[in-house]
Design goal:
The strands form 5 sheets. Strands 8, 9, 10, 13, 15, 18, 19, 20 and 21 form a 9-stranded mixed sheet that branches. Strands 2-1-5-14 form a 4-stranded mixed sheet, with no helix packed on it. Strands 4-3-7-6 form a 4-stranded mixed sheet, with helices on one face. The chain folds into 2 domains: 2-52, no CATH class; 63-294, no CATH class. It is elongated. It has helices at 131-151, 187-198, 201-217, 247-258, and strands at residues 2-5, 8-10, 12-17, 22-27, 33-36, 43-45, 50-52, 63-71, 74-79, 94-98, 107-114, 117-125, 160-166, 179-181, 220-225, 235-237, 240-242, 265-269, 280-285, 288-289, 293-294. Helices cover 21% and strands 35% of the residues.
Length: 297
């Protein structure tokens, strides 16, 4: 299939990313059938490729949004009022909550009049985990953490933890702000763009630098891997796990390689946007994913 824009169909996308001076080509998956909107300044079509210019891909920064605090014989999730002014590398007790890439709700679209038409001229980053994802974190993250802590209480027993919310790829890979129909997120397109961005050395290096600081300080006690496809199937062989194409399984292999010497507890869960319909988590240990456990909501 293809992407339809201004009376033409395109099979390839060229993504320009100004902050990192990148040019990333993406082949459009066969099951993608989208119509792009005509009221933005971000898209250019030529004879062969659909070009998304460097004004669209804006980085959404990672934040420390919550503390998880033990008091009155229980752990409680407490929201930090000013999440953007937290230096999360200085805290010794950390929980790293990993998503995959910001969605359209993590951006604000700015419209201006161009040739008598309201046109989207700017896209402004807000924060990770906004709208549905953020609301579900507020409602259910405490319950997930209490479940995990009750099972791993011999290792997770400090009085306070700071929670970092991070996107390994900090750019909008779904491209949802650019298409008119269908309105529902196209997972195949998002996955194809995410994988191309993640495999870029510069983008991976940026996230590497974050984890390198955390590894050096040995400050991460728990990683919750909520990258999309959290409980997708894993194929095993004699050499360990072989991740399928779902993003979660690509990322779990990266994490275990990164933390191979000082491996924290790693739990997989469904992306928070799917909570409470899908509220499961598993533990990753010895190159294997454990049985799925439902956390009560």
């Amino acid at each position: 299939m293809s992407i339809f824009f201004q009376n033409n169909n395109y099979n390839n996308i060229i993504c320009y990313c100004e902050e990192s001076n990148l040019k990333i080509p993406v082949k459009i998956p066969e099951d993608v059938d989208l119509t792009l909107r005509n009221d933005t300044v971000f898209i250019i079509g030529n004879n062969k490729n659909l070009i998304i210019n460097n004004h669209f891909f804006k980085k959404v920064l990672n934040v420390s949004r919550y503390n998880f605090v033990f008091k009155n014989k229980k752990y409680y999730l407490e929201k930090i009022e000013d999440e953007n002014n937290i230096n999360y590398y200085e805290n010794e007790n950390l929980i790293l909550f990993i998503l995959e890439s910001p969605h359209k709700n993590e951006y604000k679209l700015i419209r201006n009049q161009i040739n008598k038409q309201k046109t989207i001229t700017e896209i402004l980053p807000i924060a990770p985990a906004s709208r549905t994802t953020g609301n579900n974190l507020n409602l259910y993250l405490q319950r997930l953490l209490r479940n995990i802590f009750s099972i791993k209480n011999n290792l997770l027993n400090k009085n306070e933890y700071k929670i970092i919310i991070a996107n390994p790829v900090p750019y909008q890979c779904s491209l949802s702000s650019l298409y008119k129909k269908p309105k529902k997120l196209n997972q195949s397109l998002r996955d194809a763009v995410w994988i191309k961005f993640w495999n870029n050395k510069i983008i991976k290096k940026d996230f590497d630098e974050i984890l390198n600081k955390l590894c050096k300080s040995n400050s991460v006690d728990l990683i919750i891997n909520a990258c999309t496809g959290g409980l997708s199937n894993i194929v095993s062989n004699d050499n360990g796990i072989i991740p399928n194409k779902r993003l979660n399984n690509i990322f779990i292999r990266y994490l275990t390689k990164k933390f191979k010497e000082i491996l924290p507890i790693i739990a997989n869960t469904n992306h928070p946007s799917s909570w409470p319909d899908y509220c499961y988590y598993t533990f990753y240990c010895n190159n294997k994913i454990g049985d799925a456990i439902k956390f009560n909501v």
